[in-house]
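Sample intake — Tetratricopeptide repeat protein
Collected from: Capnocytophaga endodontalis
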Amino acid sequence: MTVKEFIEIIRHPYTINDDQVYELDEIVKEYPYFQAARVLQLKILHSEGNYKYNKALKLAAVHVTDRSVLFDFINSKTIIPDFSALRRDFERIRKARERKEAEEAENTPPKVSYIDHEPRSYRPDLPNKSIFEEPIFPEDLVNHQELADVFIAKEPEEKPKTDADNISQWLENISEEHNEVAYKDDKVAEKFKLIDKFLESNPKIEASRDYVSNVNLADEVKSDPKQLMTETLAQVYVNQRKFKQAIQAYEILILKNPKKSAYFAAQIENIKKLQQNNL
């Protein structure tokens, strides 16, 4: 952005384009106390109704010396009269930016182009070995044949099996299976002998027919409900809100199973709390 372009934008802020807006933002970031650039940026944000306007207004109020000039420029279409001072400020900033870019260019190493020469056609490296096969002489063939004959002579020849050999192998397999079955039969027979010997040496135990009880076992169970009391039944009483029966059930369980007395006692306390809450 040149000085002429900058002054023209101040005179006619609505003629600014997107590239100039970006350059103006960069100038404000780099030189926050450049009042003309900051005020111009604020004017453009205000005219566009941009959401960044409120934040930019606070920053401009901090960096601008005369806030009344800031207010008048934003809310009116007046033109800044002193363009000579504005031109000097902008020129000073432009030169400062040029010096900075020159220093960065000196400190930046030169870029090396990776294509310094014209591309060459790729040719694969050929092997140094000759592509022609070495000649084979008759004496070499004789030596190879002798080695092959020796190797074959060392290998044992497998004789083809005859029918007699197959029958002999089959008979051996049958004999082994027969011996295994006979061994198992001998073990079973030995067990039966031990059982018969036990039955012969011990007389039969006959049931006594002298006394037959006529007591109804069902009546005994009904008369003693403690025998049927279980933890499941106690939980059923709790679910049915029969708290009194549930407490009695757990008291019976404490007597039947003293090892779990602490657990049953804790259940009784929980039932009592439920009973109080349901009163």
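Post-analysis note: Residues 28 and 38 are 6 Å apart (CA to CA).
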